[in-house]
Automatic annotation (TrEMBL):
Domain of life: Bacteria
Regions crossing the membrane: none
Gene3D superfamilies xref list: 1.20.1050.10, Glutaredoxin
CDD domains on file: GST_C_3
UniProt cross-references to Pfam families, sorted A to Z: GST_N_2
PANTHER family for the chain: MALEYLACETOACETATE ISOMERASE
InterPro entries xref list: Glutathione-S-Trfase_C_sf, Glutathione_S-Trfase_N, Thioredoxin-like_sf
Residue intervals of the GST N-terminal domain: 12-78
Protein name as it appears in the record: Glutathione S-transferase
């Protein structure tokens, strides 16, 4: 009962982030496949999934291909009605669908002027009046959801839902461009940046470098405004505290150092995603704790 999910570059593909969070946040089994969104191989990589032509795309365990995140969301809800993808209350579910639909089809200025990027924060970005209007509208919708649901959690409808999935890239845009938001909206943005699945997605994205960087601006940058990662660095060799990779269980071949100790992994990707944000990975933090 495992799905296949085809995604683009994690640092820049906002739609792929939505698709991945649908599975990661609700515990649905999935295999991810990277396609060449910025490498020129997108059409070839998706050829077996035609007429799908954009990411993300999912294939059900039975082989049905579903493209477009809104279609994916509804299909997953139909197939997993007890997973909690939408709010249980009918009125709140209707409101959540409204917020998702408006996100799916609107906010053109925010999308066009502030392409999602998870590398750093642009300093000195001057938003247009249209972008500011989009941010005002986003904050109005978020406040409406929280008021209707009486949420006392970081999320719009109490429990994390598809509404939060669809607004995760908006939170990333507000963070990545230093866009001004009110205290309640900023707290919601900060919750996304600290959410472990979001942090893991970003950490995996940082394993790939770009030259040139997509959507680059002629502006200075500063550190990504999410939680500061535990300092770690790749090293050439062990010995390591562990003999097998904390993720795969395979023998270690690649190494990182943190806190004066060396840990091993089965490949460069496992090591590098951990270097980028060690605290985002429960299996690694369990290993780290076991040696303290």
């Amino acid at each position: 009962m495992t799905y296949d999910l085809y995604i683009g570059d994690r640092s820049f593909s906002s739609w792929s982030l939505r698709g991945w969070l649908m599975f990661a946040r609700f515990g649905l089994p999935v295999r991810t496949h990277m396609v060449g969104l910025y490498d020129g191989t997108l059409r070839e990589d998706l050829s077996a999934l035609a007429p799908a032509r954009l990411v993300p795309v999912m294939r059900t365990p039975e082989g049905t291909v579903v493209a477009d995140t809104l279609a994916m969301a509804e299909t997953l809800h139909e197939r997993h009605p007890d997973a909690g993808l939408w709010p249980a209350d009918p009125a709140l579910r209707a409101l959540a669908r409204w917020l998702v639909a408006e996100m799916h089809s609107g906010f053109g200025a925010l999308r066009g002027d502030c392409a999602m990027q998870l590398l750093y924060r642009w300093d000195g970005f001057a938003p247009s009046d249209a972008v500011l209007a989009d941010i005002d509208r986003v904050q109005q919708l978020w406040a409406t959801a929280r008021a209707a649901s009486g949420s006392d959690t970081p999320w719009l409808f109490g429990d994390y839902s598809l509404a939060d999935v669809f607004y995760a890239p908006v939170a990333a845009r507000i963070a990545g461009y230093g866009l001004a938001a009110g205290p309640e909206a900023q707290a919601y943005v900060d919750a996304h940046l600290a959410q472990p699945d979001f942090r893991r997605w970003r950490a995996m994205g940082l394993t790939k470098s770009y030259d040139p960087v997509p959507y680059a601006l002629d502006l200075p940058t500063s550190a990504w405004p999410g939680p500061a990662p535990i300092p770690a660095r790749a090293v050439d060799s062990g010995p390591s505290e562990n003999e097998t990779c904390p993720y795969s269980g395979d023998p270690v071949t690649h190494f990182l150092e943190t806190g004066g100790k060396v840990f091993g992994f089965c490949n460069a990707f496992c090591r590098d995603k951990t270097v980028n944000d060690p605290a985002a990975w429960p299996k690694f933090t369990a290993l780290l704790d076991s040696t303290s």
